[in-house]
Design goal:
It is a single chain. By secondary structure, this protein is mainly beta. The chain folds into two domains: about 20-140, no CATH class; about 150-270, Jelly Rolls. The chain contains one helix and 21 strands. The protein has one helix at about 20-45, and strands at about 55-60, 60-65, 70, 70-75, 80-85, 85, 95-100, 110, 115, 120-125, 135, 140, 150-155, 160, 165-175, 180-195, 200-210, 215-220, 230-245, 250-255, 260-270.
Length: about 270
């Protein structure tokens, strides 16, 4: 802890001077005190701390393939900075340390009659350039955390006779378009029921519509050789997968034969790990 001792001031014979070094001492104390508090929060929330990581205190929401960033506040290199916003068109946003002056406080007239600007404001300016700066938007690490994403959808009962996959109405979720790739737990279920004079099956599929990829399939099949004509069973599908932002996941269903079958009590759930 830094502190200026004022106990030795004796009025009016021993007045204590306040020098440039005194002012620097106070500024250093303020910076170090703030840094210690924020560093403690970083370690508490994230488990570790690095001088080379720009920690987001507020704002700095990244989108559009890391080209757009909102204004905010960061802690970087042991110091606190405000940041500006950018709506980029070509490049991942780069943060450039920029000094401006306080237009109200500056300039000052010194005792030698010279005019000087001394009230410096340092900000990181988010810029659409191909090179330069101290870090880029993908280096930002949230200190305050991002709320975990969660979606629970309960599609209506449906009767189909399609032998090719069709979308289960309403069972669609698109991951946030915020530049963050997340790990998701996805699960789904449906009660498949019906009657048929021949062998029959039902299929439930978790499908990545953005990449045209099947993530998991649950299937059931009934052999009617024993005379079973009425059947009820639960289909369950699930997976854990890393998904890019703005990825659309769908739940799809189909039958093995073109006869009317029910898909009831449907549930489609996604939550972020």
């Amino acid at each position: 802890m830094k502190n200026i001792d004022i106990s030795q001031i004796v009025e009016p014979t021993a007045l204590q001077p306040f020098t440039a070094n005194s002012l620097k001492f106070l500024q250093d104390y303020n910076t170090e005190d703030k840094a210690a508090i924020i560093k403690g929060l970083v370690i508490t929330n994230l488990g570790s701390y690095s001088l080379t990581v720009p920690y987001v205190i507020s704002g700095c929401v990244v989108s559009d393939s890391n080209k757009d960033v909102t204004a905010g506040e960061i802690f970087y290199g042991g110091k606190f900075y405000e940041t500006t916003a950018v709506n980029g068109t070509s490049n991942v946003a780069r943060f450039i340390l920029t000094k401006t002056q306080d237009s109200t406080a500056d300039p000052l007239i010194f005792t030698d009659s010279s005019s000087k600007s001394v009230h410096d404001i340092y900000k990181y300016v988010a810029t659409d350039v191909a090179s330069g700066g101290d870090f880029i938007s993908t280096d930002l690490v949230s200190l305050y955390g991002v709320a975990k994403q969660y979606s629970l959808i309960k599609p209506s009962d449906v009767t189909i006779s399609n032998t090719s996959y069709v979308d289960l109405s309403g069972a669609t979720y698109t991951t946030p378009n915020d530049g963050i790739t997340r790990v998701w737990v996805i699960d789904a279920k449906s009660v498949f029921r019906g009657s048929s004079p021949t062998d029959a099956g039902g299929f439930l599929q978790i499908y990545n519509n953005t990449t045209s990829t099947s993530l998991d399939i649950s299937e059931t099949y009934f052999n009617n050789g024993s005379g079973i004509t009425l059947f009820i069973t639960t289909l369950k599908a699930g997976t854990v997968v890393s998904l890019a932002p703005n990825t659309t996941i769908k739940l799809r269903i189909r039958c093995s034969i073109a006869s009317g079958f029910d898909f009831n009590e449907n549930v489609f759930r996604m939550f972020e790990l």
